Amino acid sequence: IVVGAIFALICVFGERRFLKVKFGKFKAISAVYSGVLGFVMVFTICCAISDGESQGAKLMALGEVLLWISDMILVKTYFGEGMNKKKHVLWNHILYYAAQYLIAVSIASI
Fold it and tell me: What is the dihedral of CA 2, 24, 82, 91, to 10 degrees?
């Protein structure tokens, strides 16, 4: 939960300084989403580390990391400046669908 809170606080207080974006009226929901996504990502990484034998846990963790990277590109595309280009949209889609695939495969392997 602490990790989720840290991600949410970075979203709220570091939007311009660290992320170089402006959430405007979407700041509250962005903070909640960032907190949940950050928590889930770190939790799945910890699960994959603690259960070194599980291929599914490793795939889930990798999928969550790719989803987080995809969302960071998406944040910069919608709320930042200079990243609303075809290459950024393409990378966002590639990472997003790769993440979804890995998460689905990890669930199927449990």
Answer: 50
Closest to 98 measured CA to CA, from 72, 64, 73, 74: 64
Give the count of beta carbons closer than 10 Å to the beta carbon of residue 41: 22
Give CA–CA dist 43/61, Å, rounded: 8
Q: What share of the chain is helix, strand, coil (3-state, %, to 5)?
A: 80, 0, 20
Structural contact between residues 32 and 8, judged by C-beta atoms closer than 8 angstroms: yes
Measured CA to CA, the distance from residue 87 to residue 70 in angstroms comes to: 13
> For every one of its 110 residues, what pLDDT tens digit does the chain have, with 9 covering 90 and above?
688 888 888 877 877 777 788 888 998 898 889 899 999 999 999 999 998 788 999 999 999 999 999 998 898 898 988 778 899 999 999 999 999 999 999 998 87
